Amino acid sequence: MNRITSPVEPIVTHTTRSFAPSNTKVTNKNRSLLIILLLIIVFGLFIFQLYLLSPSSSTNNEFNQQQENNKPDNLQNFEVIKKNSKENPIQIINTNNNNNEKTKKEEEEDSLIIRQREINDNKIITNTENTISNTNNNNNIEISTTTTTIRRTKTNGEYNIAILMPFVARQLPKLFFNWNRWGFRNEKSRIYTSYKDYNPTKAFPCSSFLTNHLYKRSGVNIKAKVTYVMLYNQDFDSPIRPNGRELSKEDDASKKPLESISNYNELSGLEVKNILNREWERLEGKTCFNGGIQFLSAHTPKIHDKHPEGPCYMYFTAMELLKKDYDYFFLMEPDVTPIRDHWLDKIVNETIFVQDDFWMKGSMSRCPSKYGAIAERQDFHINGNALYKLGEPKFEEYIEKVKIFYPVGNDGLTLAGCATGLAYEGGYDHTMYRFRFHPHNFDYVKNFLHRFVYNEFVQNRCEETYDPEEVKKEFPETYLVHSKAVFYTPEEITYRNIYTEIIGTPPNLSTDESRILIEKIREGSITEASLKLLTCLKTEYAEKAQFGYVHPFCIELCQDLRFQRKFERKLPNGCAGYNRNEWKNKFKDKLYLWTSDFHAAPIGCNMDILKEADIEPHAEVDFGNCMFFKGTCKQRLKVLSFDDWKGFSLDPCPNQMRRAFFNAYKYDPEMERVDAVICSHPVANCELYMPLNKSLIIYATTRIEFGRDDKHVEWRKPYITSASNLRWKQWIDELVRIGKNPRNVIAANNMYDAHYIKYHTGLDAEYIPSWCGDSGVSYNPKRTEILLGPYRDNLDYPRFDEEEAWKHPIMRALTVSITSSGTKLKFIRLRQEYPQYKLEDLANHPALVYIPYQVSTMSFFEMYRLNIPMFVPSKALLIKWHIKYNNMFERIYGEPERVIFTEDEKLDPNSNTYENLNYWLDFCDFYVFPHVTTFNSWAELIEKLESVDLKQISNNMKEFNKKQKEDLKETWSRIKTKILKYSGGPGNSKIPPTFEDGLKLYGLPPLGLDIVVSGKSQCPYE
Fold first, then answer.
1. Which residues pair with 163 in a beta bridge?
2. Rounded distance between C-alpha atoms, residue 1007 and residue 376, angstroms
3. pLDDT one-digit tens code per residue, 629-642
4. Rg for the chain, CA atoms, rounded
5. What's the pLDDT band for 823 if we cut at 50, 70, 90?
6. Is the alpha carbon torsion for 428, 468, 293, 3 positive or negative?
7. CA 599 to CA 563: how far, in whole Å?
8. How far apart are CA 769 and CA 131, in angstroms?
């Protein structure tokens, strides 16, 4: 803590003696000579005095020692002297003599301060050389430092520091609690307060060094004036009480003992001021504040006098009030408790002697990660109880910009700059933090981000209990702790811990229900187990449980029928699915496979083949077509929902949804039994299952950007934002990580998507066609009409009007060919003939002309498994149609950036050039499957329909389907064996304890906040 800011000169005074000889007759001439001689001597002494005071003087230690000995006792100890010598520019000299000895304790204190100053100087002074020498003959300690950079200068040599205590009247007991900790050396002198100190910790504000040499010494260029400033939310000088009555002498609470005051909120401002003045005078620690105590009134308007607006208003008011008289202030709310002696020394040191040129210096939260979802939100804000620089125009400008960025009305508040719009983020400290880390403000903030300094001289521990001795041991630089826990009784802590553990958020300890339970704990009339049971039955828990939040203790209680009946009165079926024994023993040695796709066909078409492979599939499909696939509609899906297409991208808050989804299932007995999850529509939603430690089957049935960067899908356009590309890149990174884990499977039901995955990730996707068979329906032509399908071909897009479809150039060309050929064949459009078809309807026709609109559809598999002869345009004809009419536009979901480049796939699948189309369309299902007849023109189609053996084509398809079914059964059996090998057997994929632990399975860091688009967040954290 060396004083290095500016040179300090010793102040030296002299007495003048006469040099005239005695018993000598003085003549006029001699008198003149004597006067001249005296003038010369005086002038010489004056020059000598200037020489001594100049920075370039070589000060004589003995002379300085003599001057120091003439000082009052309380100004002797250390003097700071700046020298011009490079080797010895600054001296700190101990000038104690035998007549002014310190106690051993004081010497230890001073030695500690010196060492601390040395450490701080070494950290922040540039181009520094230090030497320490001890002079034994006069017990001097010299610390020599050479410095070329000192940023902070002060013309008058005095720093005014305020220790600001903002408070409301009801907080006075907390304030007195802390005054007792630092105000008295003797326990008997304590101020009365309703709070009992269960872990007494004395923390006297200052050392003798600070008392004697910063506050009271004169003639030194650097000194600190520290004032204790009380900022009252109302008016200190008002004699009017809140009930409207004027203060009377007989009723003046400030004339009465504190024990007689039952409610400080009922007092007038004048009474509060007089009480504080009275108790302040009793404090021994007040001597550490050489600026005394000051009373300021915030005059908080009633509209703002609530949390969090009240503290915000008082902070903004303090910035204005204090800048007139102070250079810095430390905001110290009533629940900021000193835990170590000399905490004021530490504040002064961090303010003046540590040269980090800060605007705000303090602590980030050291609270548990679940407190206010602090880890999930990646909240690293500096708590408001911090040091602040005053009189900085740029800092004041910064605060004004924060107010503009977070205006009135944000989060329903009436004060600008007081809330970010996210849950748990009400307060000026939150808005200042979020503002400087918002992408929109990067260019503005980047030049002074360093002026917000993290430091551990104060720690923010929210409401968590702590042991002061442990904190002091682990954090030697910590002197103050911000936490409400010191005011809790042991019974309140017990209740709070149980409630927080089960509900997830701290309780309100001031409610009647809380008080009753706390009193029962105090009496010993309620056990912890009973308290947990009561907490599980609370409405707050039932409200969270309906969104999937469950606690293992409450789950266990679901095994008790009495509890189950009580709980389900509040939440019908609240215990459904939580019978652990039921799920643990289900399906025996089978692999339990889950899906929550937004399309029932990918899982519905494979149900039969999966069961034959000894896999038990279960679907929770939140989409209308689940009605066509038995047993696929959602029954107990939590958190995730279709939600007007937002579910495809987990919008609007994907990171929040991923965490909520994990929390909903981490104690779920059914999910514990799940061995694997299959994701198809969209595959990207497998992100939800990554932290649950289940094998993942990426089974692409369409493009992998679906739900992430799919700007060409009409109904997804409202959810495409500037964040879509970032989410796509995130998904590609995760997909690659999934693919590298041997317990997982990367596959596609069509060759096009298998190659598409290769193009974007470099991963080799296994080709596993969908089955969609075993319907019991097969080719049985009873009708003569040729079907034109599939159900939709987009020739009538976007109206889906069949009459319009016949007017399309492609269909008009067919009509012309039919007329010119004179064929007797009759063509009907599937959708027009069967607005809602059954498979039997299709099987009754002799052939199906398949007009593609996509590279792969589930309807193609359904129709092929019917063994109905299929005719499709040749690749050349399809390319011609597409280039001219864009009828295959649905194959392109988006144009996502290619993040990973591979040599295997060079041509762009989302390009419509002939070269690209010619390559990629080879992978369409209808060109990959055998026995599908192609045609180069409508005339050729008619000719082939009239000449080929349709029955033989159907038989060939039947044989192929039979063989492929066996191949598929073998493939899924192999996948089952692989998954169970890596999971340790059925039901052994244990869910990690936390979401972050689950992400670590894939080497992923914790998720941050959801990306805010257009400056406003839609993602409040529940």
1. 228, 330
2. 7
3. 988 999 889 899 99
4. 41
5. very high
6. negative
7. 38
8. 79
